[in-house]
Amino acid sequence: MTRLELLKQLSEAVAVSGDESELRKIIREQIKDNVADLKTDTVGNLSGVKKGTGETALRVLLTAPMDERGFMITNVGDDGLISVDEIGKHDKRYLATQRVAVGKEKQPGVMLWVPIHQSRATAIQQIDSISIDVGAEGKGGVKAKPGDRVGFLGRFTEISNTVVRGKAFDSRAACLALLEILEGEPFPFDLHFAFTAQSHILTRGAALLANRIQPNMSISLSGVLANDVPGNPDEPEYNAPVKMGYGAVLRMNDQGFTSSRVITRHLRKTAAEQNIPLQIHAQTYDRSDTASFGNSFFGIDAVMLGVPIRYMETPNSLMNLNDLDALIALTRAGLQTLDTPGDK
Amino acid sequence: MIDLKAHLKTLSEAHGPSGYESPIRALVQEAWTPLVNSFETGKLGDLIAVKPGNGAEPRPRIMLCAHMDEIGMIVKRIEDGFLYFAALGGIDARTLPGMAVLVHGKRPLPGVVALPAWYDSAANMTDYAPLSDLCIDLGLSAGEVAELVQVGDIITMDAPVLELGGKRLAGKAMDDRACIAIVTRTLELLQGRAHNWDVIAIASTQEEVGSHGARTIAWQFQPDAAIALDVTYARQPGVSHGAYAYGAGVPVSLGANFHPALYQAILDTAEKLEITTLADPLPGHSGTDAWAIQVAGEGIPSALVNLVIRNMHTTVETVDMGDIERTARLLAEFIADLSPDFLDKLRWGDEE
Question: Directed axis angle between helix A321-336 and helix A261-273, to 10°?
């Protein structure tokens, strides 16, 4: 399978927060022969160890989120139309007429839309007014039931030599990065890794890993919102600190978390020495990237490293593969050159 | 039998907005070639296909008209590699953010419609953005965009057909290519059937911007009667008037745009076939090619036969294949039933 085929498979898979089984299946298939101690914990994190060369005894944890934003069915009407609640924070301005996969059987559906000829209402549609149509005449035609999840039906597309379009890159590109790192050369230490679950539910999954693995340090990979789309010179607060095509992103802080000074310094130094394009994201105004929220493991040096993604919270986001390469290169190089804790 | 679902998928996924229908015309012509005797292309790009009748000449002529154009967009301004655009036809700007589109520059360029960054302030989170504030992101550098795209290039929605349950298909341009599919099946059903009248099948252009194709063709050909085929509203929450359920029957429109005797004749055929028809009251402007056709030249008795769809003017317009097949059966039978003297019947009853 080529890299793009794998990214397509990861992107188009349906794994909404709380049920990441489809992702775990794909990931296990990819790495089962390369790693040790592969296990799924009680919330669905898939973790394991990539054996190192034994040079140091550092306990390092590298994570990437598996789950995507989606919906949960709240009601199936007698008319066969489905109502939902949201899972994860959606940008509702981008939700009209979306195509979805409903339930475990991924029954294809569309979000109904009252045509412009009949309504000119400009208020943004809220989640509770969404009706999903799977082409059922009545309740009986709907295979799923309340409590089942609904995910977007993504369509992965290469839109240029370097830029791809698709859904859920914020999790799936991070998963690809982690997979490629796990397939590479061993590190001087045993690398603990986890593909995390429920990142969109206040990143509850990640905290369990800290308790079990008790790493000295961790790096969390994820997407970071690239907002380098037409800005407004009068409102610099909303203009882009993070740009697509300008490399990996080192997040200095987030709504509840500050990246470790020690490790950020190390990564910036590594990036400069190895000519890996790196952007620093230090803006206090932040459209919340809840994937990073729970990585504030007590007493652990932790950083968030990301890949810029435009329209990250929507079903059609854009990513530059060169940025993904930079993320992988920097993570690898950063880990390879880690000294023992005492040296810092 | 032609695989009508495959035919409709091909039509739906092809790109041909108002004024730029050539790719669609080629597809329709290819499908209709075994079904008709001759083709002509109108001055505005309409496809005219003739299946002559069997009666003695001069034969009266009935025109079947479905439009092949779709709503689209056109590049109006390029800034830093982002495209600003205007609408070609009734684009619903509320459905655009996040939409995959194809920009027809030096080559077809995939992109996505986006809200600019400054839209992220809280004040802009309550209402949908107007079309003029939206932009298209091709994921290319400003230099590459300058090389590949120019103002005036057209843009189309990029959406594959999605099969839903119960014979339903969701996709773009079902308005009105689902009705082109009805004409295809109608022509096929007429193969090997005798019919007195000539059938002129039209895949018209520019309906979405004013029915310019149908208007010019009706003037040029002056058929003796015409049936336009277009979509109408299927029942869905929030659609309050003029909506019918899938499978409920064929809506046939009533109103000033339509000749009552032609309307009645269609109903008579339906009754014979035991096909349910639904009276679709349209008292004024029908918003279809029928509006232009009726007043072409000295006037053409017109009818409008409808196909219900949900989510009109979006990338998920949803049709029912059963409705398509049923409508084709009705039209084929109606045409086969047309007697040479049917024109005499198209009278107002107050003549003597």
Answer: 110
Phi, psi of B266 (to 5 degrees): -65, -40
- Dihedral sign for Cα A194, A195, A196, A200, please: positive
pLDDT digits (tens, 9 = 90+) for A147-179: 999 999 999 999 999 999 999 999 999 999 999
Relative orientation angle of helices A169-183 and A3-12, to the nearest 10 degrees: 140
Check CB contact under 8 Å for B135 and A229. yes
Rounded to the nearest 10 degrees, what angle do helices B22-32 and B174-189 cross at?
20
Residues 6+ away with beta carbon under 8 Å from B226: B62, B63, B64, B65, B218, B290, B293, B294, B300, B301, B302, B303
- Cβ(A65)–Cβ(A44) under 8 Å? no
Please give the average per-residue pLDDT across B323-338, as a whole number. Answer: 98
pLDDT greater at residue B336 or residue B122: B336
Listed in sequence order, the DSSP H helices in chain B are 4-13, 22-32, 142-148, 174-189, 212-221, 260-273, 289-294, 321-337, 342-345
Residue B58: partners with Cβ closer than 8 Å, 6 or more residues away: none
- On whether any CB of chain A is under 8 Å from the CB of B143, the answer is no
Tally Cβ neighbours within 10 Å of residue B79. Answer: 12
Q: How many CB atoms lie within 10 A of CB A140?
A: 10
Taking alpha carbons only, the member of A336, A287, A9, A332 closest to residue A188 is A336
Residue A131: closest C-alpha in chain B: B237
CB contact under 8 A, B140 and A163: yes
Phi (first) and psi of residue A335, to 5 degrees: -75, -40
State how far the Cα of B97 lies from the Cα of B83, in Å rounded to an integer: 13
Comparing C-alpha atoms, which of A333, A317, A338 is closest to residue A159? A317
Q: Which of B79, B140, B314 sits opposite A230 (nearest CB)?
A: B79
Distance between CA atoms of residues B90 and A279, nearest Å: 42
Beta partners for residue A110, in sequence order: A99, A133
Measured distance between the N- and C-terminal CA atoms of chain B, rounded to whole angstroms: 46
Can you read off the two tokens belonging to residue B229?
Answer: 């085929």
Across chain A, mean pLDDT equals 89
Which residues of chain B have a CB within 8 Å of the CB of A115?
A: 92, 233, 239, 311-314
